[in-house]
Amino acid sequence: MRENVVKFFDKGMFGYKMLYFVLVLLSFNSLCARTTGLNYLTYIVAFLGAVFLVFRLFRWKNYIDTRGIIFLVLFCGSYALSSLLMRQYGLMENIQAMIWMVIQFFVVYTYDKSRDVSEDKREIKIISWFFIGYTFVLAAAGLIMFVMGYYHYRPVVDNAVITGFLWNRLWGLYSDPNYGAVFSIISCVMAGFFFKTAKKGLRVFLVIHAVLQIAYIALSDSRTGLVAAAVTAAAAMFLLALRFRRLKQMKTVLKGVVSLLLAVILAVGSVGIVLGVQKGGNAFKVWQREIQTQNGEDDKEKEEEEILVGRTEADINNDISNRRFAIWYSGYEIFKTSPLFGISFRYYREYAKDNLPNTYIVNNDFGEFGSMHNAFVDVFVSQGLLGCVILLCFIISVLTALFRRLFKSEDKDYKYRVFLLLCIIPVFVSMMFYSETFYMNTGGAFLFWAFLGYLMHSLTQDTKSKFHFKKNRGKPCVKSA
Asked: What is the model's pLDDT at position 70?
């Protein structure tokens, strides 16, 4: 009986992860975002997450070797402490944030070190192709909306869900074009990884897919997406160039310099491509406007600037950071009022109004801000120095494994590990510009923690073959990591 239960939960774990992935993707899909049906799915996913978490707690010895897991436990403890200390401003939303964070840390990220990496690769293939298909549909739909000039504005409580092309940006079916642009980058990385092994027909599809994703990045006018694309392209070129045949024979320093130069060239080139596609989109819009005018179909109410891609300086308040510098400084002001334990994440506004009514996030000419638009500033404010030290220890633990073992990998393992890292990098870059990964229930957070778990599992497995006993049979066998 016990063995059957274990098998059931082991097989069901990946199914749960996919269900959770669907939820977080739909949460930022303008057709489903903030709908009653999605709320019901949220409750189901949260309940099942608790069930699978309990299952893992009963088998905690299988997962205790997960890289940095002790720091993640302490991080959750620090957040619980911050929430309790600030409970007068609210508690329920902090509990919700804790639930999602626990699921991401201990169900999505945590891994069984004795498990064969081939199982990870099977899961990654399913996740990647599913994500490629999803982003293909959304990018294609978005481009159709761009051509048609379609948009829809749906007010929801104190916010709105936008669809289509509005305010000089292509939102498409993403409720936030920044998330959409980052998804497009990750999807391009996945397409590139599977291109070589794909059949001819699929290769054609992957090329078309990459073109659509680049077009979405350009037309979304996401500066976060532009920076993430440049950084990801540079990282890809640098890491892969180190294993180029013609560079292998070079001395280490020279090889590093050449790889770095190639990385810079590709980064600049990727930015140029995105900006070029954006200019092409604007040229199309101008041509379309001329044709409509000749046919008497022009929308006289719209100024020519409104049909073009690209926000002006006035649109972003003549501030290159689009208010982020002011928000981050406001975070510093709040941090000084509770530097050790922080003020928790979900009640920034309530705390600021009570303690710092003149700080920027609640006193400005735009509106109130509920986050710091930077994941690390969020931790800085939410959990204070205690949370920052714990997070720093986790980051050091992960980076130590990465730098010690990545460059010693054999070519096949190296490419696989670089692929995982390149799927993580766009999300990491986005964390600098909006709240992501911590306290958030997003597609980016899922991909970050899932692929980081797969990467750490691959890096921390023993490199030599070893004897072990299968748990259910008790027979010795040889396992190669």
From this structure: 97
